[in-house]
């Protein structure tokens, strides 16, 4: 492990009741938790977290099922991998670390956990930043040919007969195009990523995340929308200029303003994994947002 990988951060494993989470944390100031997406681990934040740590206590967990966090047994309804269950983990983790109120940043699948956390526990969240996503319910409601062509993996990984596990575990590095991402990730994060995708239990848990998305999370989002629920905290929405959100949804902020009329944000000059590709721009945007009361 190189000397500058999460320099000054501690790593531990925290039992949150339904799962045991691997977490790195460091820095001083108001707390912020960073939630990674699929198929990454907390290590995806290694370029961003130190940039925030001068002003914030930064907490970077592996979500349940991912990385070196535990993989709870699944059920027929996939509830152990619902975003509501994952959000409970984060609330308990932050309480364990001494924080009852905190900011949340989520990327990709982690943004769905962050969104659900802010809806289910509004008193806990001071600020919410969501990166390269729209709510699962909105994505499914707007599903069209463009979505099917670009995000077909949602439906493949979500198949309950588990064809995804059988295919991915034959050659996970090829499936995840691992070598093409090595330089942008950095050697330590890349090694952590490889350990994760080479573990069949992790691959299964990641697929369960998608199955829960189709069976529980999407309908829950849609029910909340029909009930008129909205986010109570400040919301920052950032998307990658070189990814496909504008192609799929047009004005990304318009999608989010149905949930938070005060939402603000914009594009980061990056591909999808902006924490790895554009850490300075992302950290700067987050610091400015978190500085607002």
At a glance:
The chain has 15 helices and 8 strands.
Architecture overview:
- The protein is of the alpha/beta class and 293 residues long.
- The chain has one domain (10-291): Alpha/Beta hydrolase fold, catalytic domain (Rossmann fold, 3-Layer(aba) Sandwich), CATH 3.40.50.1820.
- Helices cover 43% and strands 17% of the residues.
- It has 15 helices and 8 strands.
- It has helices spanning 49-52, 83-96, 109-120, 136-141, 145-150, 153-157, 163-168, 172-175, 182-185, 187-197, 200-226, 245-249, 252-257, 274-277, 279-291; strands at residues 10-15, 20-27, 30-35, 56-61, 102-107, 125-131, 235-240, 264-268.
- An 8-stranded mixed sheet has the order 1-2-4-3-5-6-7-8, sandwiched between helices.
- Helix 3 links the parallel strand 5 and strand 6 (125-131).
- The longest helix is centred in the last third of the chain and has 27 residues, at 200-226.
